[in-house]
Amino acid sequence: MPSPPEAAAPSTDAEPAPGPAPPAPTGRAARRPGSWLAAAAVVWAAAMALHGGIPNAGVNAGSLFQTLLPWTGLGVPVLLGLAAVSRSRTAVAAVLAPAVVWATLFGGALTDKRSGGGDLTVVSHNVGEGNTDPAGTARVLAGAGADVLALEELSDASATVYSRELATAYPHHAVVGGVGIWSRYPLAEVEAVPIMPWTRALRATARTPDGPVAVYAVHLASVRVSAAGFTTGRRNEAARELAAALRAETAPRVVVLGDFNGTYEDGALAPVTSQLRSAQREAGDGLGFTWPAAFPVVRIDDVLVRGMTPRAAWTLPATGSDHLPVAATVSR
After folding, report:
1. What is the pLDDT of residues 180-219, one digit of tens each?
2. Which candidate, 191, 195, 202, places its Cα nearest to that of 148?
3. Could you count the other beta carbons within 10 Å of the beta carbon of residue 275?
4. Measured between alpha carbons, how far is 310 from 329 in angstroms, rounded to an integer?
5. What CA–CA distance (Å, rounded) separates 305 from 203?
6. Mean of pLDDT values over 109-126
């Protein structure tokens, strides 16, 4: 019988059979990225919702956060993108919290709340001390058709130009220090409001056809962002002085126009804003950012009223200033 064939020797070049795949991360290791993102979303939402409680000690973090509060919404798509990459349903769900908070705070600003009517149209503009074309700026302002103008950051030279250029449309005006009021209607009881060592606020009574209106033109002290933080002490003191003047104001109808060097949301300005209503918030279209004019990111110029109803609010085209002018129509 033929002998059976010999078994082939195993090849030494054969690749080893693949071993079992390493186990997928489980437990705390798998949950960690999603958990961190969910926690970050909740903290972000809490900071937005409770912004008034952020302390202003030291670097004035509260005022800085509140000044930039509308931009906190940018954190939502960032967190959502990270949550999607992490494939964490918990993180995706948690991102809804800051989205809802932002929508509650600013969602109404995305609608056009302007309406018709109104007895008085007002304009406020920080015309910029370095403005090289005050005459052109005056023409833009006159073209807005306002009944009352409040101008801030006037110099002696520019005040002369504005007085000349606006004389036809606004036969009544008063300038004290760096602020001025121009009016179609007679002005009475003109006086400086002592909010700072030098004059940065002015009050006058405009004798409108619908009765007297107390008009304030104000320019609160500037703020600075530096390595030392957000410096607002002088501005905050000016705001407290202005608030005291407003509490003593007896006129039933009040309009406060100016550059507040802070936003309506800044809690440090609450002594003023708690007494007044923002025309932009109640009757504007959009967030109405005013500074810097080339690419506005904050609204530090405003029209605030008491005893009157805002009907419309808007910003005007850029001038030679680094601020945009603001306008509003109000009624009794």
Report:
1. 999 999 999 999 999 999 999 999 999 999 999 999 999 9
2. 202
3. 16
4. 6
5. 14
6. 94
Sequence letter at residue 262: G
73: tokens are 């919404």
Give pLDDT tens digits for 167-177: 999 999 999 99
Contact 276, 306 (CB under 8 A): yes
| pLDDT given for residue 29 in this prediction | 45
Report the DSSP beta bridge partners of residue 314.
327
Query: Residue 181 in contact with residue 215, Cβ under 8 Å?
Result: yes
In the chain, pLDDT over 70 holds for what percent of residues?
Answer: 90
Cβ–Cβ under 8 Å, residues 200 and 238: yes
pLDDT tens per residue, range 15-72: 555 555 555 455 454 457 789 999 999 999 999 999 999 988 778 899 999 999 999 9
- Please state, in angstroms and rounded to a whole number, the distance separating the CA atoms of residues 328 and 290: 14
* Count of other CB atoms within 10 angstroms of residue 193: 22
Nearest to 102 by CA among 75, 65, 62: 75
Between vectors from CA 88 to CA 85 and to CA 89, what angle results, nearest 5°? 125
Reference 131, options 165, 159, 171; nearest CA is 159
Whether 310 and 276 have beta carbons less than 8 Å apart is answered as: no
> Exposure of 271 by Cβ count < 10 A (0-12 exposed, 13-18 middle, 19+ buried)?
middle
For residue 2, give every residue at least 6 positions away whose Cβ sits within 8 Å of its Cβ, in sequence order, or none: none
Alpha helices, DSSP H only, in 57-126? 61-67, 75-86, 89-106
Angstrom CA distances, 59 to 7, 55, 62, 253, 271, stand at 85, 9, 9, 37, 20
* DSSP conformation class of 291: B
If you compute the radius of gyration of the chain from its CA atoms, what whole number of angstroms results?
Answer: 30
Q: What angle do CA 225, 50, 247 make, to 5 degrees?
A: 75
Q: Closest Cα partner for 214 from 283, 146, 308?
A: 308
Question: Do 180 and 154 touch, CB atoms closer than 8 A?
Answer: yes
